[in-house]
Amino acid sequence: MSFWQDPVNVIGEWIRSFLAGFLPEAWVTFLYTLLSVVIVASFGLIIVIFLIWLERKIAARFQDRLGPNRAGPFGLLQTFADMVKLVTKEDVIPEKADRLAFNIAPILSVVAVLLIWAVIPFASGWIGTDLNVGVLYIAAVGSFGILSVLMAGWSSNNKYALLGAFRAVAQLISYEVPMLITLMVPVLLARSMGMMEMVQDQDLWFIVLAPVSGLIFMVSSIAEIGRTPFDLLEAESEIVAGYHTEYTGMKFGMFFAAEFLHAFTIGVLFAILFLGGWRGPGAEEYRVLGVVYLMLKGLFGYFIVMWVRSTLPRIRIDHMLSFNWKFLTPLALTLLILTALVEKIFEGSAWRVPALLIGNVVVLVISFLIVRVVSRRTAKERVTFKKRPEARPA
Amino acid sequence: MTAEQAIFLFISFVILFSGYLMVTRANLVHSALFLVVALFGVAVIFVLLDAGFLAVVQVLVYIGAIAILMIFAVMLTRGNATEEQESVNTGYGWALLLSSLFAFALIVMLGQWQEIDALAPALSAERDTIVELGTALVSPDGYVIPFEVASVMLLAALIGALVVARPQKKGK
Amino acid sequence: MQNTWLFIGIFIAIAAVFPLLPIVVARFVAPHKPNPIKLETYECGMETVGDTWVQFKVQYYIYALVFLIFDIETVFLFPWAVAFDALPLFAVVEGILFILILVGGLLYAWRTGALEWS
Predict the structure, then answer these.
(1) What residues in A contact B3, CB-CB < 8 Å?
(2) Distance between A133 CA and the closest CA of chain B, angstroms
(3) Which of A205, A279, C44, C88 has the most CB atoms around its CB within 10 Å?
(4) Which residues of C touch B167 (CB under 8 A)?
(5) SS3 of A128, please?
């Protein structure tokens, strides 16, 4: 591949041969891997700076105002100003706080999100590392994020932080179940857990083959990142700032950055799993186009997240948890069973795509009908709770 | 000493040390966090054995679910966040004797094993281990009966735990 | 295969260093003037009464339990999904049977009210 078609691999090969000139093989591998790690991790962090600005601008526009526009042209330097402000704030550690856990929690939070970027396929052949268990790896590093929430809440030695942490973890683990189940649907369709193969198998985007599963994945991911309508975790008016009440300065900045990066990361994951990833016209020959397509689709996913955030009010925790366990999980399991059956019965035939699509729509319609019938029945029960004397015509 | 052996030694030391810290810390939440470190070390050992799937499953299930369950149990029942407990077992003499005997027996047995310096054989790259695992799990002359029994066992665990943990609704 | 995981290993190390840098910078740049009032736990401006503890609510534990069961279930199903091409319809039905047994468990939890937040 010529340089303009595949710059990353060409430069990589050049660096490897340069290093192999004066170092033994093991060191070459180590240094090359170190260099690629630094590049991928820095990409993730630099994106955060842009994302915070984008989020504030778009949230502002949804609310019919301008957003930051003073620091630099169009307010682009606003994030730098915020970072400088957070760095200069005093780092207050409550006196009875558990030092080790208190300090590790924000770092663990950032690590959990950054680790996802190691397996994201930017273009054909451009990936941090192509694990053959990429999809499950992404679910696994989410558990570090959950652990960091628990550590933050507990080590602050603050009732409200602890309570907030428990509720946050209850929400996070509940919504991980439909997320795992809907993660299995693209794995089923692509017959592989590797991220590269997942994208390469999407001649037809998986959102067409499993639209409702994609929807459930998006909803449970929004709950996983703690965004409205699921942002009980930081409901300022209710439990102060939840599990990160006692954090100040840059440690709070780390939680803040991790949350934004996580929101964009699931936009990118949604793009990879359901919207075809880096695929698009010309993406195989000119690899840079692949990155462009992926970022555009990821930004689209991120835009959906922000749109939902600006539109819907916050849900109460019991509604949220019953929505998860009584609606999303059975629906996700039904869709998995449906996809498995249809894939096997219509294997290789032309009816596969319409059968899957129609099956998805039918399941969605039936589930909505069931919900409507059930809610009418329970509403009626509540209204006829107490008999009151009424004036009736004789 | 290859890099693989060096990493193995380091990780084994980490696991054993965090295991030791886990049982000796007086603060139970600290113990739970050291348990997490030990479980993560086990995941690294799975990676060294070319079992990437099992490593990821270890993190996802053990650290993501079981450790969190334990931390919940500890935090909810301990109450006071700074409460600490004496953690010396009075029967430690017997435990010391039995574990020394066991360690001695293991060392003698392993010392007589000829291939103790051999490296683990590398799996050939053509074998797709996950597909083999999946086929083995559901093929009738594979492990399909244990597979289905596992789901029944999970069902039993779920129902049993719910019965035990169910809040008392009547009579209060 | 181990080179792919070496990337992850180094990534964990670097990803742990990256957030440390601003925090270390903040340590030098930020003021550090602790006084007892600042170091108290925050409770909307009021003083805390009693130790920090949370009322034992078994509901948290039950959610974690049900999550654990479903977590293990999905872990069993991932190899089944990956090996889909090599499986006959019978094997697919076996996998669906696996799912249905645990749906039964979910239904049990639902009907006995274990999933209510109260």
Answers:
(1) 26
(2) 6
(3) A279
(4) 58-59
(5) coil
Among A143, A146, A154, beta carbon nearest to B29? A154
Question: Do the chains contact at A107 and C16, CB–CB below 8 Å?
Answer: yes
Q: Establish whether the linkage from the previous residue to A229 is cis, with ω within 30° of 0.
A: yes
CB–CB of B130 and A132 under 8 A?
yes
Are B14 and B48 a contacting pair, CB within 8 Å? no
Q: Which two tokens stand for residue A69?
A: 């526009």
Q: Which two tokens stand for residue A308?
A: 């939902």
Q: Mark yes or no for CB contact A133/B63 under 8 Å.
A: no
Yes or no: say if A258 and A113 are a contact pair by the CB < 8 Å rule: yes
Q: Residues of A near B (CB-CB distance < 8 A)?
A: 26, 96, 98, 101, 131-133, 136-137, 139-144, 146-147, 150-151, 154, 157, 162, 166, 169, 173, 176, 193
CA distance A158 to A95: 11
SS3 B83: coil
From chain C, pick out residues whose CB is under 8 angstroms from the CB of A88: 26, 29-31
Q: Is residue C72 within 8 Å of A181, Cβ to Cβ?
A: no
Q: Quick one: closest CA in A to B4, which residue?
A: A26
Nearest-CA residue of chain C relative to B157? Answer: C69
Cβ(A367)–Cβ(A327) below 8 Å: yes
Cα B86 to Cα C30: distance, rounded to the nearest angstrom = 40
Shortest CB distance from C64 goes to which of B68, B140, B166?
B68
Among residues A105, A118, A183, the alpha carbon closest in space to that of A144 is found at A105
Residue B99 distance to chain C (closest CA, Å): 32
The 10s digit of each residue's pLDDT in B44-55 is: 999 988 888 999
- Enumerate neighbours of A (3 or more CB pairs within 8 A): B, C
Q: What CA–CA distance (Å, rounded) separates A210 from A323?
A: 21
Which token pair is A65? 């105002």
- Cα–Cα–Cα angle for A84, A88, A92, rounded to 5 degrees: 135
Mutate to test the interface with C, among A83, A166, A187 (most CBs of C within 10 A): A187
Q: Chain C residues with CB inside 8 Å of A180's CB?
A: 70-71, 74
Tokens of A230: 């699921």
DSSP H stretches of helix in A5-133: 7-20, 25-62, 78-87, 99-114
pTM as predicted: 0.89
ipTM of the complex: 0.87
Q: Is A265 on the interface with C (CB under 8 A)?
A: no
Task: HSE, CB side, 13 Å, CA atoms: give it for residue B1.
Answer: 6
DSSP reduced 3-state for C60: helix
